[in-house]
Design goal:
alpha+beta, single chain, four-stranded antiparallel β-sheet
């Protein structure tokens, strides 16, 4: 299992567009990809699941990827967060 800490860096937080980007990216990989905030865990391949996390600016999330391409999946999603979902 690969784990990474992610910080929401775009001012608007995770709304529909970033959630869609996360889900689209996660769905490119065979691995299970989960996002955790506090004690809640959601499937990163689900747009609605990601939106319901209500992750605002500067929120820290834990990404957990498990499967044959977990490192690549974790890195791809980490890069989305680092690029601020190309919003700012």
């Amino acid at each position: 299992m690969t784990e990474k800490l992610l910080t929401v860096r775009n001012r608007a937080g995770i709304h529909a567009r970033p959630a869609a980007l996360i889900a689209q990216t996660a769905n490119k990989f065979a691995s299970e990809v989960m996002l955790e905030k506090d004690s809640a865990s959601v499937n990163a391949k689900s747009i609605m699941g990601v939106i319901t996390m209500a992750a605002g600016y500067n929120t820290t999330l834990t990404l957990k990827a498990d499967g044959p391409d977990e490192k690549e999946a974790a890195e791809a999603i980490f890069n989305l967060f680092e690029s601020k979902f190309e919003e700012d």
